[in-house]
Amino acid sequence: KAGVTQTPRYLIKTRGQQVTLSCSPISGHRSVSWYQQTPGQGLQFLFEYFSETQRNKGNFPGRFSGRQFSNSRSEMNVSTLELGDSALYLCASSLGDDSPLHFGNGTRLTVT
Amino acid sequence: QKEVEQNSGPLSVPEGAIASLNCTYSDRGSQSFFWYRQYSGKSPELIMSIYSNGDKEDGRFTAQLNKASQYVSLLIRDSQPSDSATYLCATRRAGSYQLTFGKGTKLSVIP
């Protein structure tokens, strides 16, 4: 069974630009979550989607948004990029509420 | 602020020894607990999940949960150099869809 697939693996953007990251969950997984990982803050929750509905959102500004499609694939978008947005963005999928998360390889975003 | 605390390490153990990783959490509503392993430059990989008090064993790994003490631990028996990684503790409260992660403990297994 294929794992969680994230594209692209690496991105370099300039301040003020916007970026879209993509995630394909494990087949059969309907829950997709996004996390930001930085050396200083560790892993922080961005948002979670289930059946195209955002069920929970972390403490991030409105510049961070996401969506989920009917095939469970998900995208997250960051607008007006700031230097502090440089991080590893991780997508994870799970079967449901109490199931463990399985992470993709992540997208390394660098904002210059 | 609900927190998950881990000793950042590094924790160094000789090859073949038992590595003991600890985690405390502040949210008494936490119901599910997970250990992830993360190699440098890689994404977190699920090692263990535990939902009730006591021990849960899987191969060389044993997770221990004590909800009264708000304490979770991971024991790695017969540690191998390939176990050298950062270990992340994560909790989830009932009815929540997010994990709260500790900042991880870096383990180094010395050959």
List keywords for this structure.
heterodimer; A: 112 residues; mainly beta; 4-stranded antiparallel sheet; 0% helix; B: 111 residues; 6-stranded mixed sheet; globular
Characterize the structure shown.
The complex is a heterodimer of chains A (112) and B (111). Chain A is mostly beta strands and 112 residues long. Chain A is built from no helices and 11 strands. Chain A has strands at 5-7, 10-13, 19-24, 31-38, 42-50, 53-57, 64-68, 74-78, 87-94, 102-103, 107-111. In chain A, the strands form 2 sheets. In chain A, strands 2, 4, 5, 6, 9, 10 and 11 form a 7-stranded mixed β-sheet that branches. In chain A, strand 7 (64-68) and strand 8 (74-78) form a beta hairpin. The relative contact order of chain A is 0.33. The mean pLDDT of chain A is 95. Chain B has 111 residues and is an all-beta fold. Helices cover 0% and strands 57% of the residues of chain B. Chain B is built from no helices and 11 strands. In chain B, strands 2, 4, 5, 9, 10 and 11 form a 6-stranded mixed β-sheet that branches. Chain B has a 5-stranded antiparallel β-sheet with strand order 1-3-8-7-6, with no helix packed on it. In chain B, strand 4 (30-38) and strand 5 form a beta hairpin. The mean pLDDT of chain B is 94. The interface between A and B is medium-sized, with 23 and 24 residues.
Could you outline the blueprint of secondary structure elements for this entry?
The complex is a heterodimer of chains A (112) and B (111).
Chain A: E1 5-7, E2 10-13, E3 19-24, E4 31-38, E5 42-50, E6 53-57, E7 64-68, E8 74-78, E9 87-94, E10 102-103, E11 107-111
Parallel strand pairs in A: 2-11
Antiparallel strand pairs in A: 1-3, 3-8, 4-5, 4-9, 5-6, 7-8, 9-10, 9-11
Chain B: E1 4-6, E2 11-14, E3 19-25, E4 30-38, E5 45-50, E6 54-58, E7 61-66, E8 71-76, E9 85-93, E10 100-101, E11 105-110
Parallel strand pairs in B: 2-11
Antiparallel strand pairs in B: 1-3, 3-8, 4-5, 4-9, 6-7, 7-8, 9-10, 9-11
